[in-house]
Amino acid sequence: MWCVAKLDEAYVERMEDVLAVYEKPLLAQAPVICMDEKPVVLHDETRAAIPMRAGHPARRDYEYKRCGTANVFCAVEAKAGRHFTKVTATRASPDFAEFLLDLAVAYPEADTIHLVLDNLSTHSRKAVVDWFGEEDGAWLWDCFTIHHTPKHGSWLNQAEIEIGIFSRQCLGRRRIPDIDQLTQQANAWNQRINQNKTTIQWTFTKEKARKTLKH
User: Mean pLDDT across the stretch 108-128?
Assistant: First the structure.
């Protein structure tokens, strides 16, 4: 369910900026990418599962062992059906900066990359420059045209839909005990969904926003 904050001038301005980006045509020179992070709690079995038998699914114990946490960066070029996932131990500034570099390298022909982000403190030019240095960090940051969602407006980021797909199709109800296995599962899912070129059909436009939210 959407949770829409007070529609002040700042909220409306950022909302309409993001929605205008989504209405841009699919262009190799100016791709539109949405990005967000997914925290993952790692679990392991405390007892071996009972193997599947004819007519009976495998059974596992309800008890589990917590094995720490990890982070998954999820990004999607929704109209092209191009998906990016990267597993990291944290979602700290260096991890964000490295993921931006991955995205920039993936689009060598782009004049600019429109990037939709929420307002997390690490989503900043400073994070990139602190990690790569002023010259290289400035170059990387300038590869992107940044579009921040409004405060309390993360529902406008299509990466939330991407994370929902990733959570259902890749994570499901399985127990993943460590980062290595999470990376293997995420990479396999990423390969499958890119082969299928799964797109996201976004239908909430600026016109609909003005009618629905009456601003």
Answer: 96
